[in-house]
Design brief:
The structure holds 3 protein chains of 3 kinds. By secondary structure, chain A is an alpha+beta fold. Chain A has 3 domains: 288 residues, no CATH class; 115 residues, no CATH class; 59 residues, Arc Repressor Mutant, subunit A (Orthogonal Bundle), CATH 1.10.10.410. Chain A is 39% helix and 20% strand. Chain A is built from 15 helices and 16 strands. In chain A, the strands form 4 sheets. In chain A, strands 6-7-10-1-11-12-13-14 form an 8-stranded mixed β-sheet. In chain A, helix 7 packs across helix 9 and helix 12 packs across helix 14. The N and C termini of chain A lie far apart (74 Å). Chain B has a single domain, classed as Amidase signature (AS) domain (Amidase signature (AS) enzymes, Alpha-Beta Complex), CATH 3.90.1300. The model of chain B has no long low-confidence stretch (mean pLDDT 96). In chain B, the strands form 2 sheets. Chain B has an 8-stranded mixed β-sheet, sandwiched between helices. In chain B, strands 1-3-2 form a 3-stranded mixed β-sheet. The radius of gyration of chain B is 21 Å and the shape is globular. Chain B starts with 5 loop residues before the first helix and ends in a 13-residue tail after the last helix. Chain C is an alpha+beta fold. Chain C has a domain of 38 residues: Histone, subunit A (Orthogonal Bundle). Chain C has 3 helices and 3 strands, in the order ααβαββ. A two-stranded antiparallel sheet of chain C has the order 2-3. In chain C, helix 1 packs across helix 2. The longest helix of chain C is centred in the first third of the chain and has 18 residues. Chain C is flat, with a radius of gyration of 23 Å. The relative contact order of chain C is 0.09. The mean pLDDT of chain C is 94. Classes of the chains: A alpha+beta, B alpha/beta, C alpha+beta. Chains in contact: A-B, A-C, B-C. At the B-C interface, helix 9, helix 10, helix 11, helix 12 and helix 13 of B face helix 1, helix 2 and strand 3 of C.
């Protein structure tokens, strides 16, 4: 039997507001437990919610960015269930009338292919607190600092057919929310969380199989692993004559397995109803258009512009527009360097990316700023140094030894372009290696590299390679 | 002294006939002497009251006083009061010392009003007799065998017995007007959204509204003046300007169009009460008002609709009482389920449990459309009845209650018969309109309430209409016999 | 409409209220009586009627995004049944 995987994702993006969605408590991460939980967040008797304008603006910004319908009227509803990290016994969310309606997103797959994934809706809701299961006298500790943090829940259609597609979609949403500055995207801190609804069905069948909801997927890698595990698990069950049950499963990264959560509980009955403490949110065209006008250039637009303006390949453009910070860095380099944008692209996605990755540094904190890198590229372009020497200079700049000119100066790395000097060196090398010269002349072309190497060795790599090539050819052609 | 109106008390404070401390002590003494027979207070705050009175005296002496500075009142125990126990009539909150003030409390405090204490009430405001309070029933000062009404029974009884010049109350289905009627005082439920709900422990959020309970409409006007107004902490608070409620109190009523809904005078209305109401209407005719019969055809649906909407909202509102962050927690919970289930079973009384269960059912999968959604639609029809009526008339009048109350325990075993006693008050909450109950002539020696219903934000008109009757008659001055000391 | 013990049990579980078996009879009766009262609604034709969630035709006001609250943990936890190290404690939650 051939199986087809069907995946839909629910992404929870914490909105980057200063205060909570319904209270004036801070949303800053990492505070002492319960020091950022005010009376509204604690659900004290008598408290009432008041909606944060910025949270609404951010949701609308997302809506216009994916070309979705932004609801002129949306309604908050209560989702009722008991859990210790849910102080009121209900979560304020949106049910029937979400703020963002149907939209879509194009995801980029391998080999330059792309696919449109439908977005069903995106709605505003409040986050819950955290349960800490470490041992507090055999009890669970509850920290409600996170309770009331604004979330945008982005629900996709079940349009993805593989873990790779799901990851591509999640990455695209991740880049987008960061581009439009509504979420910091920090997965380790839980600012960006993915749940995956996974099911399998025989290839060709239209009806969907029974799905499992996977939770606790706090990195793209885990998302991919968990989906693949789940697909295998479901196929195994079905092929051995069993039936998949609809349930929530928790991914355990340490054991690399998923396990059933709250399996004993009966099907949830959340008793949604419109929250009587909040009124309908009505947004007019003026408000929505104002927000539309603040949209930055979006990843796809930027990628196309990079391809045309800088003559980059689709692959290069995609890499460089993966995040807004990276794209901004690249453009700053191009603007400052008197250099070919293609070479700049190679440096940013090559040498720089490798160094950032190696030292686990964010591009915004790169010790080699865009200006510094531009200075280096300019020196390559004006032939002060060769590309090879430039890597040495870059490493020194990374270590904080000054700008390109300073490094070149102190280390004496300036390229030798004096033809007379190079000619002299070439002459010496040819004379000192008569055997090789003879072999070369009798047709062993490969030996040309040997001569280049000898000259470079003599100059510690500083001789202009083109000049060396030319002069060597000329010299070896003599006699 | 205790028969003086708030305006008179304020004048006495200003000219120095007595200080706020003396006035406060006077009412504290009355509470101590008389409340053991009434049980209208859950908590008396003698120390806090006296120190607030001292501060008020300083303001009075330095000329910084407002109209209400130094006047003692009582708060229904549904309003959160910082540093003072706030029980909401429930065992669940027996030890709940609120860490913050309700907006109503804060506003009255800022106006220099002294808080004598917290008044008894039906548990979580669910009841019409004050018998559901964990802190024991409240007695009606007119007849201590009789219920004072509810849920603001403690506030009504303490004002009727002149243990406080005024009190705050809340009204979800008649909880200000019905006890005001049964205790012979003035009780105003403002338009939904007129007074902030912040810090008022929620029963049914789309119906709850706070208001003043006083011995006269004039006092209600000066209390409402402080209580009313936009509050940025309450999303359902109206951004309407607050008019001067005392300015038009004496306005002439010539040409006022009064509508009498025929549905409010039919079967089930006690004869003696009907007579008192007729008498009051006759007074209005004398004052130049024109009386017409109107119809509110969906009146009979108000109680059924209310008993879906209110329990549904309450079932969700009361989920926060889970024994985790405050309130009652059961002994030695074995697990989380046990913590929830036992804490709530022990902390809530029977009536609260009934309403939570009914509300949970009405919202549950498969029943939502038939109950909650249906009720919301009928709520629209009930509201439309009033919209139509106010095209013809300025105010609507009728009895506040179908009878003059019942003996304690009489209806305790039959929740539905209790629910039906709110038949005239509930529709007003569903529509969100303002309504006031003022004393009509005694009916067989017992208080009877005249209910006056106004259009949205027409509180000033209601107070004017009420005040004119109180200028023309002394109905509102009748007081229970056994309260003099 | 009348509710039986099983219905009441299910609702009581959703509402997290412990009910003793001996209470079931009277609670089922009370709830059924209330539902009978409410039943009158079903006779009304509400086709085309908009549900009314709120008495006033107002829209949600939006608050500016400012931090206005400061730490009051000590005060809030002074009324809590059980805390430790700034956390509210509950019986162990098993996921």
């Amino acid at each position: 039997m051939q199986w087809e995987t069907v995946i839909g994702l629910e992404v929870h993006a914490q909105l980057a507001t200063q205060s909570k969605i319904f209270s004036g408590a801070s949303t800053a991460y990492g505070a002492e437990p319960n020091t950022q939980a005010c009376n509204v967040d604690l659900g004290l008797p008598g408290v009432l919610p008041v909606l944060n304008k910025e949270a609404v603006r951010m949701a609308v910004k997302f809506g216009v960015a994916i070309g979705a319908e932004v609801a002129s009227r949306s309604v908050f509803a209560r989702k009722n269930y008991f859990y210790p990290d849910l102080p009121k016994g209900y979560q304020i969310s949106q049910m029937e009338l979400p703020i963002v309606g149907i939209g879509s997103l194009t995801i980029d797959l391998e080999a330059g292919e792309s696919k449109v994934v439908g977005i069903t809706r995106a709605h505003l809701e409040e986050d819950a607190g955290k349960s800490l299961h470490e041992d507090f006298h055999g009890m669970t500790g509850i920290d409600l600092n996170r309770a009331g943090t604004p979330l945008l829940e982005i629900v996709s259609e079940p349009d993805m057919r593989s873990a790779a597609e799901a990851v591509a979609y999640a990455k695209k949403i991740h880049a987008l929310v960061r581009y439009i500055e509504i979420c910091d995207g920090n997965m380790a801190e839980g600012s960006f969380r993915c749940d995956a609804n996974v099911s399998v069905r025989p290839k060709g069948q239209e009806a969907l199989g029974t799905r499992a909801e996977l939770k606790n997927l706090n990195s793209f890698r885990f998302l991919e692993k968990a989906i693949n595990l789940e697909v295998e698990r479901q196929i195994d069950i079905i092929e051995s004559g069993g039936r998949v049950v609809q349930e929530t499963r928790l991914y355990d990264a340490d054991r690399n397995e998923t396990r059933s959560m709250r399996s004993k509980e009966e099907a949830n009955d959340y008793r949604y109803f419109p929250d009587p403490d909040l009124l309908p949110v009505e947004l007019d065209e003026v408000f929505i258009n104002e927000i539309r006008a603040t949209l930055p250039e979006l990843p796809d637009e930027k990628r196309q512009r990079f391809e045309s303006d800088y003559a980059l390949s689709q692959q290069d453009a995609m890499v460089l527009t993966a995040s807004r910070e990276l794209a901004d860095y690249y453009e700053a380099v191009v603007a400052a360097a008197k250099s070919d944008p293609k070479i700049a692209a190679n440096w940013v996605s090559g040498e720089l990316a490798a160094a950032l990755n190696r030292d686990a540094i964010d591009i915004t904190n790169s010790p080699v700023t865009a200006e510094l890198l531009a200075g280096l590229l300019t020196r390559i372009a004006d032939q002060t140094i060769s590309g090879k020497i430039a890597k040495q200079v870059f490493e020194a700049m990374w270590q904080g030894e000054g700008d390109a000119d300073a490094v070149i100066e102190t280390k004496g790395l300036k390229q030798i372009t004096d033809s007379g000097a190079i000619e002299k060196l070439v002459d010496d090398v040819v004379i000192n290696n008569p055997k090789q010269a003879e072999q070369y002349r009798s047709g062993k072309d490969k030996l040309f590299g040997f001569f280049v190497g000898q000259v470079m060795k003599e100059t510690k790599g500083k001789a202009n390679p083109q000049q060396v090539n030319e002069l060597l050819k000329k010299r070896l052609a003599q006699d | 002294m205790h028969n003086k109106s708030m305006t008179e008390l304020a004048a006495g404070l200003r000219v120095g006939d007595y200080s706020s401390v003396e006035l406060t002590q006077y009412f504290l003494d009355r509470i101590q002497q008389l409340d053991s027979g009434l049980n209208s207070f859950v908590t008396v705050c003698a120390n806090e009251a006296l120190s607030a009175a001292q501060a008020a005296d300083v303001q009075l002496q330095t000329g910084q006083a407002g109209l209400l500075t130094g006047i003692p009142i009582a708060h229904k125990d549904i309003f959160c009061t910082q540093g003072i126990r706030t029980t909401c009539g429930s065992k669940m909150l027996e030890n709940f010392v609120s860490p913050y003030d309700a907006t109503v409390v804060a506003r009255l405090k800022a106006a220099g009003v002294v808080n004598l204490g917290k008044t008894n009430m039906d548990e979580f405001a669910m009841g019409s007799s004050n018998e559901t309070s964990y802190y024991g029933p409240v007695c009606n000062p007119w007849d201590t065998e009789t219920v004072p009404g509810g849920s603001s029974g403690g506030s009504a009884a303490c004002v009727a017995a002149r243990l406080a010049p005024a009190a705050t109350g809340t009204d979800t289905g008649g909880s200000i007007r019905q006890p005001a009627a049964l205790c012979g005082i003035t009780g105003l439920k403002p338009t939904y959204g007129r007074v902030s709900r912040y810090g008022m422990i929620a029963f049914a959020s789309s119906l709850d509204q706070a208001g003043p309970m006083t011995t006269s409409a004039a006092d209600a006007a000066i209390m409402l003046q402080v209580m009313a107004g936009f509050d940025e902490r309450d999303s359902t608070s109206a951004e309407q300007p607050v008019p001067d409620y005392s300015a038009g109190l004496e306005d002439d009523l010539t040409g006022l169009k009064i509508g009498l809904p025929k549905e409010y005078f039919g079967e089930g209305l006690d004869n003696a009460v009907a007579q008192s109401i007729d008498e009051a209407i006759a007074e209005y005719r004398k004052l130049g008002a024109e009386v017409v019969e109107i119809s509110l055809p969906n009146t009979h649906l108000a109680v059924p609709t209310y008993y879906v909407v209110a329990p549904a909202e309450c079932s969700s509102n009361l989920s926060r009482f889970d024994g985790v962050r405050y309130g009652h927690r059961c002994e030695d919970p074995t697990d989380l389920e046990d913590l929830y289930k036992r804490s709530r079973a022990e902390g809530f009384g029977d009536e609260v449990k009934r309403r939570i269960l009914i509300g949970t059912y009405a919202l549950s999968a498969g029943y939502y459309d038939a109950y909650y959604l249906k009720a919301q639609k009928i709520r629209h029809l009930i509201s439309d009845d009033f919209t139509q009526a106010f095209k013809q008339v300025d105010v609507i009048m009728g009895p506040t209650t179908p009878d003059s109350g019942f003996r304690m325990g009489e209806r305790a075993d039959d929740p539905v018969s209790m629910y039906l006693s709110d038949i005239y008050t509930i529709a007003v909450n569903l529509a969100g309109l303002p309504g006031i109950s003022i004393p009509a002539a005694l009916a067989n020696g017992k208080p009877a309430g005249l209910q006056i219903i106004g259009n949205y934000f027409a509180e000033a008109k209601l107070l004017n209409v009420a005040h004119r009757l109180q200028m023309a008659t002394d109905y509102h001055q009748a007081a229970p016999a056994n309260i003099e000391q | 409409m009348s509710l039986d013990h099983a219905d009441v049990k299910k609702i009581a579980h959703l509402a997290r209220v412990d009910l003793a078996d001996e209470q079931m009879e009277s609670i089922a009766k009370d709830l059924s009586n209330i539902l009978n009262l409410v039943e009158q609604m079903s006779t009304v034709d509400t086709a085309g009627v908009e549900p009314m969630a709120h008495p006033l035709h107002m829209v949600q006001r939006l608050r500016s995004d400012e931090v206005t609250e400061t730490d009051a943990r000590e005060l809030f936890q002074s009324i809590a049944p059980q805390t430790d190290a700034g956390l509210y404690l509950v019986p162990k939650v098993i996921e």
